[in-house]
Structures are given as C-alpha cells and as structure tokens.
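Hi everyone,

Forwarding the result from last night's run.
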Amino acid sequence: NRSKMSKVEGLLERLRRGGNVIVAEGYVFEFERRGYLRAGAFVPEVVLEHPDLVKSLHEEFVHAGSDVVLAFQYYGHREKLRLIGREADLERLNKTALSIARQVADGTGTLMAGNLSNSTIYQRDKPNTIREAEAMFKEQVEWAVNGGADMIIGETFSDVGEAKLALEAIQKYGKNMPSVI
C-alpha cells in the first residue's frame, strides 16, 4: 500500500482520529465545459490526448482544498471505450490516469485514489452482464493497486447491486486497499 510507504496520513488513519477527508471531483463536467470531452460518451480521452491538462486540473483541485487526487478513470472502462472504438487504449488510458494522479499526489502531499464508475451494462437479472461488469471492475482495481493508489472510490451506481459488485471486486482484488462507495 502506497500510503504506508509515504509520510502522508492514510484515509483510515485520518478517519480513526476523527479527521476529515475532502475529495474534489467533477473532471467530466470541467473538461466538457473546457471543450476537451464529448458530451454523451463522457469517456476521459483527454487523459491520453492532453495529459498535461489532466495534471493541471488535479493540481487546481488540490489547491482548492482536495485531500485526495482522484485518478480520472471515470467511464474509462472497457464498455465505454468499446462504444467509441478505442478499446485498444483501455489499459494505457487507465495506467496513464493513475500515473498522473500519483505524480500530483506525491508532489502535493495528498492521497491518490483509483476510480470505478457504473458499468453502463449491469442488469441485476442478467448474469452475463454481472460477470462482464465484475471483469471490468477487476481490471480497474488491479491497475489501481499496481499504480500505487492509496484507496479506490466507486461512484454513480444507480443500482445497489452494482455498487455491491464494485465493493466486492475491491475487496477481492484490491489487496486490502480502503474503499469508498
């Protein structure tokens, strides 16, 4: 776990002592507003096309008070990249997003979080979609672990079953990494 190697106090340690942890996000909307992300698909292609801008926005969020640099992996999963014809970029996008976030977190003394978002395919009554969503979560969790994340944040799940599936993937593949769902 990266947080144990650094001098930055980890999520669980902060919470145990009653501290607060602020996580700023909104990368999708900010990059859309700035014209670097397409409405509709909301795939974080900007990570590959303009990594300097992603780094800069992370730094802006930390400057504004965020204690956590959230890797811009939102909708950076297999299904969304398949829909826009960029599935071949999946691993590179995720690893780049994690690397940028780790660099900013190390430079600012903040925590770094990997990110899971809704799969857009999960249907509680269709086992094949559950298996596919779990496989997508697994690969993103493993990339977050290997990318030195201090925690993983799962967000925007409209079905509690999918949120539980994300949490189970973090618990199974996250090597005891803290998570926030």
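DSSP finds nine helices and four strands in the chain.

Cheers,
N.
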